[in-house]
Amino acid sequence: MDPRRRIPRTDALLARPRVAAAAEALGAGVVKGLVRAVQDRARSGEIAPEAVEAELLTALDARRPASLTPVINATGVIVHTNLGRASLSEAARAAVAEASGYTDLEFDLATGKRGRRGTGVRAALLEACPEAEDALVVNNGAAALLLAVTALAGRAADTRFSAQTPRATPPYGSPAPRSHGSPSPRSEPSEVLLSRGEFVEIGAGFRLSDLMESAGARLREVGTTNRTHVDDYARALSPATGCVLKVHTSNFRVEGFTAEADLAELSALAHAHGVPLVVDLGSGLLEPEAVLPGEPDAATALAAGADLVIASGDKLLGGPQAGILLGRAEVVAALGRHPLARALRADKLALAALEATVTAGEAPVTRALRADPELLRERTLALARELAAAVPAAPQQSSIVVPHDGRVGGGGGTGVPLPGWALALPEAVAGPLRTGTPAVVGRMHEGRCLIDLRCVPESQDGELLRALIAALDATGSAGGLR
Ligand SMILES: *Cc1c(COP(=O)(O)O)cnc(C)c1O
Q1: Could you list the residue range(s) of the whole structural domain that residue 46 is in?
Q2: Would the pTM count as exceeding 0.85?
């Protein structure tokens, strides 16, 4: 008899309880596709007909509802954009799960009436950053910047904003020369003042300047690449100025003969001209962080007089992708009213995760940032010891544990080393580690694959050990550990 006739039929396979359960979770189409693929492998003789069912179950187990594969980040880079930036806290994960169904996102359960979106996250942000009068959350940092620039200096700058905030009266302070308290005809503010040292490309070819120009704002370059003074801004201010923007150089450093404007002086200058000062922090720190003394934070910028600060949710804040706008009430309100705000708004999952991140204790990003080097060393040594015990011909565990500096990665702390340790393995294990389950991504450096535990939760040490053993076995590299 043709062995292919022994291949289990599709309906028989689909009727198996585990297969049927998988069809519920993954969708019938996906499961049928996997059934067909396994049957094809049997038809071609790649596997025996008797192995079809077991192979199918293995394929179903490996199959996730979406194609994103969880990764153990062993690079030592905390905010790794290629690896999805921040790993969410348990609280944030639980919040996402809870928000996944119907929720009272824009509904007041007490009155049965329509409610305001994002009130919970707004309250959490204002509690975490009392220097801010109001907060607004949008899709990401770039969206926050786009919204701010569009509303304050774009093609359709929000004239209601200027009307409601007479530029001759407080809170901007000293009298503004140009509005004389009336919203009467004036040239539309359309310029953004930005230091030449702060034209930032944030990655993958995206330039903040292009983004702002796409909003119809004109960028007025101020100062020089290495030095920009408050006087430079003073000379550039004109009735066409929509806002003064300060952008954190979050992914590069200018060293040597450098100077930048002091925020307090710059805000005083901007306010004297009735113009808001916007600070794009990128990093997302709400308060100063002892580990990164040079990193700007929202509270300090607002205390220095910034009217609006912009930050990402998934950088040093350690939350979901989001753009956070914090600042003076009228400025934030003007942004919230702008038509673009509707197109850039954050979804319920991000709002839930962000609120939980801000409310709960240390997020994984913060824990990784503050990780104690001595504890990292102990964990790394323990991992090396267990690896040596599990893999024959493994060398002295201590010889493969090396000092290794972790990094903040995206959105801040450029060039700041975070002292720690790594396991130095042969380069050849990197491939099997990446394609194994769980996938492990280490740092390739000088012909070695470095495994840094900084961003690996301790609860995953066992899983990581098994992945390392499997990868070493797969490459026959055990003898090359030294
Ligand atoms: C990262 C960053 C942005 C963009 O934020 P996303 O959340 O990635 O959109 C904007 N400005 C600065 C200074 C940044 O560091």
Answers
A1: 3-62
A2: yes
